Amino acid sequence: MEKLLACAATLRRHHFEVDTVHDTAEAFAIIREIIEAEAPKIVSFGDSKTMRKTGIIDWLRENGDWTLLDGFDASMSRPERLEIRRQALMSDLFITGINAVTEEGTLHWLDMVGNRIAPVAFGPRKVILVAGRNKIVANRDEAEERIRRIAAPQNIARHPGFRTPCAKTGVCMDCNSPDRICNTRMEMLRCYPAGRIRVILIDQELGL
Asked: What domain count does the chain have?
């Protein structure tokens, strides 16, 4: 927890709102509290194993107080899901995870189509981000290394139909495959406007 508290203090200096919690149950309680306080009309999310582990998606689906834009509904075609992800840019509240958080107080992602990072950067009035303690690294170089060697190859392993070199080697080869998922990188240095983004750091090993 000590590392989480130090990281949280740095993020706060960079104008993020931050919570540190012991487990996913505490994270769920905070996310629910935020959503109920914000009373959004439209909610959406970007895929994240850590976020799903909190149970918040099931709760959002069961609640009829808002419209949930679910761009990961398996019953829909890929073009339909992509269209919903575009609409998520205009949601009132957006939830997702983070690939890496640095002790310097910056956030890092690498995406295939950018549907996670675009709403984080701009659009939704409120953004909630969740990350386990395993996502915390020292600096930008370590963040990029973590994404290349852990997050990206393990994410490919979740999609067996994708044919990339890292699917076989387990290590990023900086490929040019049509199935490449490492296309758009984002680094967030500060939160603007202050407090728009709420980061929840969980003292558990979670996600990729």
From this structure: 1
